[in-house]
Structures are given as structure tokens and as C-alpha cells.
Write a structure and sequence with these properties.
Blueprint lengths: L1 H18 L7 H17 L2 H17 L14 H18 L13 H14 L2 H15 L4 H17 L3 H14 L4 H13 L3 H12 L5 H10 L1 H11 L3 H14 L4 H12 L4 H17 L4 H14 L7 H8 L6 H9 L6
């Protein structure tokens, strides 16, 4: 998928560059440049992702293209505004945390990226500076800047150990804009950490109804937040709620192998024959859509070998799992504990 996104937007950028003449808007090139960088970040091609930044800087400052050719008027607003966005996205996606000075010239995206960097590096003063600037810009009027200000305040107080204050700021961010996807994920994560699995699940169900950018889905997948919330709900004895939060995610992404695997495993753990068979069906689906998913393979191996009495059928799953680089420790422990993998 991301190969297609990268290649398609590279072609679109090249076409826009060839058609552009001084005096024309650079909008078509900027659009493909924006998505091209995002695709390359998902592929882990950070060199290409940095090239997109160099390209947008050239367009913003020189009114032309890095590859050469005619020059127009520098400073086009869309190009100029896209520079900090691409830089901020690069920092967040690569987790190459970079604490930049917070100044009046900093864009809101730069301030938020710097705040995230400061939170990860323990720079409380920069967090305070970012919080103050965003609050000044929001001036109590709300909007995206108001949401960002509350997000940074939550980061600041979470880092200081003020969990209740951090939660209050997250609640305020949601109140400012209930349809802002990022803060839903942030609050769901905090609620899960606080073992408020019901509240965390509620945030994700709302998130599923929003037009969230792809990066939000990537964040959920990388952190396995939805799966962990479902496990928390099931552990609290609320299997129905656990299945509902997984099904909410699957309604938006029916071929999400990780969600199918977790759904199947929770059903298998009931040891109720009918539910075990349904769970095994989910695990089979998960392996079909994502053959290399370690959770699907480990869960199905345990199910086949120790629950439904088909140990011979678990061999293929165990072989695939053994070939996974750096498999999750909890899955290794599970298989070792079940006698299916050597310790």
C-alpha cells in the first residue's frame, strides 16, 4: 500500500513540476509532496522523507523546484505553511525527538512537535514555553490551537506526575473539539493506563466515527492500544465490551489481522465450545489477511495444540512464529509456558 502511495505521489509531483509555469500556483505539487512524504515515512525511507522537506523548502523560499527549472515568486503561503508541517511530521514519525526553540515565529505544528519531543526528553521548561505560547494564541477561543494548548498542558502535568490535572486538560481538549481525533487517542491511552478501560473504549468508539488522518490509525496499530484496552475489559469480566471495541475497529478496517486475532483469542479464552470455534474462525481469518502476524500465529498455535486437540496442525504456525524477528516477549512466554517453544 505505502509503496503505491509513495510512487503515485512521486509521479504526480513530477507531472505537476513539468506543467508548472511562473505565476501558477504550486498547489498540485504541494499536495502530492505532502502525501509522498507521508508514504515514505510509513515505508521507513527517511532519506526520501527528508528529500521532500528539501523540496518544499526550495518551493517556499525560491519559488521554484529543487530539481531546477524556472523560478517564480518565493513565499507562496501554502508552500510556506507546509514547511513546518513536514518537519514536525518527520520528527513525530521517526521519533528523532528534536527540541527546538519556541518563538513567536514557530508554527503551531512546530510547537506541538517540539512539545512532544520535550515530553520524551524530560524538558519541562520547553513544555511550559510551548504551553504558554499556544494558550496565548488560542486566547480562549478554542479551535485547533485551543486543543493543542490543552494537549501540551496534559503532557506537561503528566510528566510532573500530576495525573488528575493531566486528565482534566485532556477532558478540556475534547470539550473544545469533540471531533479532534488526536486527543481522543491521547485520552484513550491515558485512561487505559489508569485502568479506566470503559472510558478508553468509549474514546476509541467515538474515534471510529471521525475522519481521522492515516497517522492516527498507524499510531493505534503500532501501540496495539485497541487490543490492550480489549484485554483490559475482558480481564475485568466485560467480554461483551471488549468485543464491541474490537468490532468497532473492524467495522472501519475489516481486514485488520491484529484485531481479528485478538477477538479470536478472547473468545478462545472463554473455553466455551461454541465460542472457541468462533474464535478459531477469527484466528483463521487473521492468518489469511496477515500471514506474518505473530499474535495470530501464536494464538492459533496454542488454540490448536492445547484447546481443540489438534497439535499437529499447530506446526505451521509455530514455524512461522519462529521466523519472526524480535517477536513480542509476552507471546514467547506464552508459547514457552504451553510447552510449544523452547525457552
Amino acid at each position: 500500500m505505502w509503496d503505491y502511495v509513495s510512487n503515485h505521489n512521486q509521479s504526480a509531483y513530477d507531472a505537476a513540476r513539468e506543467l508548472w509555469r511562473p505565476g501558477d500556483t504550486m498547489g498540485d505539487a504541494i499536495h502530492s509532496l505532502d502525501w509522498g512524504q507521508y508514504g515514505d515515512l510509513q515505508l521507513g525511507d527517511y532519506e526520501k522523507a527528508r528529500l521532500w522537506i528539501e523540496r518544499i523548502e526550495e518551493m517556499s523560499q525560491e519559488g521554484g523546484f529543487l530539481e531546477g527549472g524556472a523560478r517564480g515568486q518565493g513565499g507562496e503561503a501554502r508552500a510556506r505553511n507546509s514547511v513546518p508541517l513536514l518537519k514536525a511530521r518527520y520528527i513525530v514519525e521517526t521519533e528523532q525527538w528534536m527540541v527546538l526553540p519556541v518563538t513567536e515565529e514557530s508554527s503551531n505544528n512546530e510547537v506541538l512537535a517540539t512539545a512532544l519531543s520535550a515530553a520524551h526528553t524530560g524538558d519541562q521548561q520547553t513544555l511550559r514555553d510551548a504551553e504558554a505560547l499556544l494558550k496565548e494564541r488560542s486566547s480562549g477561543e478554542g479551535g485547533n490551537t485551543g486543543v493543542m494548548a490543552n494537549e501540551v498542558s496534559a503532557l506537561l502535568h503528566a510528566g510532573m506526575g500530576h495525573a488528575d490535572v493531566a486528565k482534566r486538560f485532556m477532558d478540556e481538549a475534547v470539550a473544545v473539539d469533540p471531533a479532534y481525533p488526536d486527543v481522543r487517542v491521547f485520552r484513550a491511552s491515558q485512561r487505559h493506563s489508569d485502568e479506566d478501560h470503559i472510558g478508553a473504549a468509549a474514546d476509541l468508539v467515538v474515534l471510529d466515527s471521525l475522519a481521522a488522518p492515516p497517522i492516527v490509525g498507524d499510531l493505534l496499530a503500532a501501540s496495539r492500544l485497541r487490543e490492550r484496552i480489549a484485554v483490559g475489559l475482558a480481564s475485568d469480566g466485560d467480554l461483551l465490551a471488549a468485543l464491541e471495541v474490537l468490532d468497532s475497529g473492524l467495522s472501519a478496517d475489516p481486514e485488520n489481522g491484529s484485531l481479528l486475532a485478538e477477538r479470536g483469542w478472547l473468545l478462545v479464552l472463554t473455553r466455551t465450545p461454541e465460542l472457541v470455534q468462533r474464535g478459531l474462525g477469527n484466528l483463521d481469518e487473521a492468518v489469511v489477511v496477515e500471514p506474518g502476524d505473530p499474535h495470530a500465529r501464536a494464538y492459533r498455535a496454542v488454540t490448536l495444540a492445547t484447546v481443540v486437540g489438534r497439535p499437529g496442525d499447530a506446526t505451521a504456525d509455530l514455524e512461522v512464529f519462529a521466523a519472526v524477528d524480535n517477536p513480542p516477549v509476552d507471546l514467547v512466554d506464552l508459547l514457552v509456558g504451553m510447552g510449544l517453544l523452547e525457552g
